[in-house]
Each structure stands twice: as structure tokens, then as C-alpha cells.
Amino acid sequence: MEEQVENKDFMPKAQVEIMLEDIRSDFKVFGEGLNDVKKTVDLILEDIDEIKSDIVDMKSDIVYIKTDIVDIKLRLDNIDEKLENKAKKTVTDNHETRIVKLEKASLVSA
Questions:
Q1: pLDDT tens-digit profile of 38-53?
Q2: Type and span of the H or E element at 13
Q3: pLDDT on residue 97
Q4: Is position 2 within any domain?
Q5: Which domain holds residue 75?
Q6: Dihedral angle over CA of 47, 48, 54, 56, nearest 10
Q7: What b/e readout covers 5-32, taking b as 16+ CB neighbours within 10 angstroms?
């Protein structure tokens, strides 16, 4: 018995079993936490896949929108040109009318 007391490195079997049980318990809790993290990551990955799909759809929509915008710009340019031409024609017609009136007035007075 004296030999056991003098050996400071000696640990009773019961104490070792308690420590091992505590370590097993910690690993079990760690494993459960790891499973929870895995489930959360799986849910996040599903959400990311859905978001990726939505982004692909939006990119496709943007291509169509860009095409429509180009078409609208061309139409607006065409309308602007027609309005500009009409305004020029109206001014020209007004000038022609005034010139004709002036010519008639000068012919009457002459």
C-alpha cells in the first residue's frame, strides 16, 4: 500500500472511468451540435440554390428588358424626328402663308 501512495502518477480506475465518461458526454454533445450545424447548412444551401435560380431568371428577364428599352429608344427617336419635321413644316407653311399675304398686299397696293 505504501507503494501506491508514494506513486503520484497513479490514478484510481474509478476516477479514470469518470473522466472518460465525461469526455464521451462532451463528444456526444459536440456531435449533436455538429448535426444541428449540418442541418442548418443544408437548409442554407437549399436557400442558396433557390436564390441562384431566381438570379438566373432575373438575368434572363433583364435581357428582354434591355431589348425592349432599345426598341423604345428607337421609337422615341423616330417620333422625335417626325415631330421635328412637322414643326419645321409648320414653320415653313406659316412663312409661305405670310409671304403669299405680303405678296398679295404689295400687289394690291401697287
A1: 999 999 999 999 999 9
A2: helix 13-109
A3: 86
A4: no
A5: 12-109
A6: -160
A7: eeeeeeeeeeeeeeeeeeeeeeeeeeee
Tell me if 27 is assigned to some domain: yes
Domains: count for the chain: 1
Q: Residue 90 has which C-alpha cell?
A: 409648320
Q: Is residue 40 part of a domain?
A: yes
Give domain status of residue 64, yes or no.
yes
SS3 labels along 50-103: HHHHHHHHHHHHHHHHHHHHHHHHHHHHHHHHHHHHHHHHHHHHHHHHHHHHHH
Instruction: Retrieve residue 76's grid coordinates.
Output: 422615341
Q: What amino acid occupies position 105? A: A
22 to each of 16, 19, 44, 53, how far by Cα in Å? 10, 5, 33, 47
